[in-house]
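Preliminary data (for renewal application), zinc ion complex.
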Amino acid sequence: MKIDVLGCSGGIGQGLKTTTFLVDDSLLLDAGTGLELLTMERMLKIRDVIITHAHIDHIIGLPLMLATIFDQHKEPLNIYALPEVIDALKQHIFNWTIWPDYTCLPEESPIIRLHKIKKGDKLSLQDKNIEVLPAQHPTPTVGYLISDANASFAFTGDSGINDELWPILNDRKPDLLIIDVSFTDEIDELARLSGHLTPSHLQEQLAQLNHDCKIMITHLKPGFEDTIMQQCHQLLPDKQIYRLHHNQIINLSSP
Ligand SMILES: [Zn+2]
Ligand SMILES: [Zn+2]
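Predicted structure:
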């Protein structure tokens, strides 16, 4: 399985894009500003989009991409998200004020098909199994576990302390965990309020993971990336923890 890291920052700025992962060229996991790195040809190859939550850093690329590919796409794009996220997209984005309503354009065969999911669902998309994972965030949010015949990875979505997740991952044993650590330890209260982890929270959370896999940190606050990573390494010297980087291509196969 190939993961193109198009966006993995908690903000924007030169070289920084928000959460956007492209899996095997045709499955999009969140639609942040990272979508702008794709050529038209690559955008047209995307068949399914799975969305973690409605926060703008995870969806802003979607309306822009739909307008871009509108005249050239051949098949409707399938969008999978929680019912609350689908409602938010309809109400706040595709409402003819912020953006045209692509849920009914073109009239005879709309460019997107919306599919409602819920926590615990297991989807079969392309050659992959996708399990919808719990997440803890101030708005309805999920994570995803994506597996093919050879390998699997879990993405927490944006999430703070999430004790429900670890028994599931202990059972599924992914090869890679991509996890949100947005803030440094000094920003503890804001992290708790906004539903993100700090390095100390990560340490507490990983104490519940009894499966040893590679861990990659995402959604780091711009300007604090080095401090976040230093604190993670100090607190968890024995874990394989890496910072996720933009334009990184992860080729995942089981060890
Ligand atoms: Zn969020
Ligand atoms: Zn976010």
